[in-house]
TrEMBL record:
Family to which this protein belongs: Belongs to the HypD family.
Species: Agathobacter ruminis
Name of a matching Pfam family: HypD
Tree of life domain: Bacteria
Span of the signal peptide: none
A GO term, aspect molecular function: carbon monoxide binding
PANTHER family: HYDROGENASE MATURATION FACTOR HYPD (PTHR30149:SF0), HYDROGENASE PROTEIN ASSEMBLY PROTEIN HYPD (PTHR30149)
A single GO BP: protein maturation
Keywords for the protein's UniProt record, in alphabetical order: Iron, Metal-binding
Official protein name in the record: Hydrogenase formation protein HypD
InterPro entries per the UniProt record, alphabetical: Hyd_form_HypD, HypD_1, HypD_2_sf
Length: 347
């Protein structure tokens, strides 16, 4: 079918209501940027899931970063959006006024030069992300060992996709199909979600990030649901292969192992993260046991939004107290966050 015919099909769809969840922050941003929702029938609903790495990072992790940044001769290096994520009382950026030493970098590898040029300073990299970025942190550790740099550590908040999706489905998430993240599948392979599809009898469509790529994947997912198909279909074959990236997977599995980690608004989920293996424990800055902080803004509905149980506009803080200049929850901080993209669309 031509793209025009596919769009017409999606616009004119009048079957049972279909709820599709994208579990990739880049998909969330792209769907908003390209106005994909405006191309769909009101009987096809797109729901943003827990795919924004900054958004799912618990406040206890931010609190630990702040503690580290206040230690003598210590600098926390991080990507820019994590600087503004609220901890239990304040963000890392706000803590700089209290003496916290935090520096924005563009790549984990940037701290290799910093650590080499400043041997008396201990550098801690805030290692957040999913399967896509975990191999980069593995490479950082590998290079630190090769260069004999003992003043580099990482604080991990690395997540894996399958177990959180299983958590959602076991907790009565009303989801009919998933747009699988193309970046993750480029590392893991297109079959990464196959066991989930089989266990929960639900379809997955691996999608790219362009407007036509998203529309085609959504169409494919709708057709799978209509025909009662399960399994995983790859609509991003130019980048995603069935076996994934063997080199990146080897790096990930060499330095990290599955572990139980906390997700903002969801608590601890067994086997849903990656932690450094014991033989590399000297590079860990205290990642184990970082649970969700008990002190929360109970008006903020970020946790429910991440689970697809609420929309940003359902939150009483949205566009009132909470906005990109004054984020009350992590979902409003990152450009991949559901609340941020909803605010930009509203604006």
């Amino acid at each position: 079918m031509e793209i025009k015919e596919i769009i017409e099909y999606l616009q004119n769809y009048q079957g049972p209501v279909i709820r599709l969840m994208e579990v990739c922050g880049s998909h969330t941003a792209a769907i908003s940027k390209f106005g994909i929702r405006d191309l769909l029938s009101d009987r096809i609903e797109l729901i943003s899931g827990p795919g924004c790495p900054v958004c799912v990072t618990p406040s206890a992790y931010v609190d630990r970063l702040i503690e580290l940044a206040k230690e003598p001769n210590t600098c926390v290096a991080t990507f820019g959006d994590l600087l503004r994520v609220p901890g239990s009382s304040k963000s890392l950026s706000e803590s700089k006024a209290d003496g916290a030493n935090a520096q924005m970098v563009y790549s984990p590898m940037d701290i290799l030069k910093l650590a080499k040029d400043n041997p008396m300073t201990n550098y801690v990299f805030a290692a957040v992300g999913f399967e896509t970025t975990a191999p980069l942190y593995a490479l950082l550790i590998e290079e630190a060992m090769k260069q004999n740099l003992s003043n580099i550590r990482i604080l991990t908040a690395l997540k894996s996709m399958p177990n959180v999706i299983a958590y959602l489905l076991r907790n009565e998430a009303q989801i009919d199909g998933f747009l699988a993240p193309g970046h993750v599948c480029a590392i893991t392979g297109a079959d990464y979600f196959g066991k989930l599809a089989e266990e929960f009898h639900i379809p997955f469509a691996v999608s790219g990030f362009g407007d036509e790529e998203l529309v085609v994947a959504i169409y494919g997912l709708v057709r799978m649901i209509e025909q009662k198909e399960t399994g995983v279909k790859n609509f991003y074959p130019s980048v995603v292969e069935s076996g994934g990236n063997a080199v990146a997977l080897d790096k990930l599995n060499t330095y990290f192992e599955p572990c139980t980690v906390a997700w903002r608004g969801m608590g601890e989920i067994e086997g849903s993260g990656f932690c450094l293996r014991k033989e590399y424990a000297q590079f860990d800055a205290g990642s184990i046991g970082l649970k969700e902080d008990k002190k929360k803004n109970h008006a903020c509905r970020c946790g429910e939004i991440l689970m697809g149980k609420a929309k940003p506009t359902d939150c009483p803080l949205f566009a009132r107290v909470c906005n990109p200049s004054n984020p009350q929850g992590a979902c409003m901080v990152s450009y991949e966050g559901s609340c941020f993209t909803a605010f930009q669309t509203k604006a």
